[in-house]
Amino acid sequence: MTISMYQASVPRFVNILGNLSNILEKAQAHVEAKKIDGATLTNYRLYPDMLPMIVQVQIACDTAKGVVARLAGIDIPVFEDNEKTLPELKARVAKTIAFIQAITPAQVDGTEDKAIVTKRGDKETHYKGMQFLLGHATPNFYFHISMAYAILRHNGVEIGKRDFLGNP
C-alpha cells in the first residue's frame, strides 16, 4: 500500500495543530490559575539566541500552510505576525487548520516530483515535492511545535507527551 502526498501532509498537520491548540488552551488555564501575565509564556525563549514561543507557533503555522499551498499550486495565505496573547495564537492555529483543511486530495496527490523552489533572501533552494514535504517542511514543522511545547512545559504548564501526540 502506498501513502499519498495528501495523507502524508494535510491530516498530519491538522492533527498536530489541533494538539497545539489544546496545549495553548492548557497554557491559558495555567496563566489564569497561577495569576501570571500570559506574555511570560509567549515571550519566553529556551536560550537567548532562540526564538520566543510566539514565533515558534507562527513558524509552525506558516510551515504547514506553506507546504500544503506549494504542493497544491496555490498562493500561500499571508497571516500578519501580530499575535501577542495565547488566545490570539490559538486563533492563528485555527485559521491555519481551516486553510489546510480546504485543500483537497486531488490538489496535493501526484506532487511527489513537482518542482518546489523556496527563497530566503537571495538564496533559492530547489526541491521535488516529496523531498520538500518529508525532508524539509515536516521536520521543520515538528521542530517548531516541539520548541513551543518545550517552552510551555519548562514554564510549568502541565502537559505531557500525550498532549503533544494526541490521537494520531
Sheet of most strands: 2 strands, antiparallel
Please state the overall shape, judged from the principal axes of the Cα atoms: globular
Number of domains as seen in the coordinates: 1
Distance between the termini: 19 Å
Count of alpha and pi helical runs: 7
Secondary-structure class: mainly alpha
Tell how many strands the DSSP assignment holds: 2
Reading the helices and strands in chain order gives: HHHHHEEHH
CATH topology: Four Helix Bundle (Hemerythrin (Met), subunit A)
CATH architecture: Up-down Bundle
> What Rg is obtained from the alpha carbons, in whole angstroms?
16 Å
Mean pLDDT: 96
Helix content: 55-70%
Low-confidence stretches: none
Beta-strand residue percentage: 5-15%
Give the CATH H-level superfamily.
dinb family like domain
Strand order in the sheet with the most strands: 1-2
What's the CATH C level? Mainly Alpha
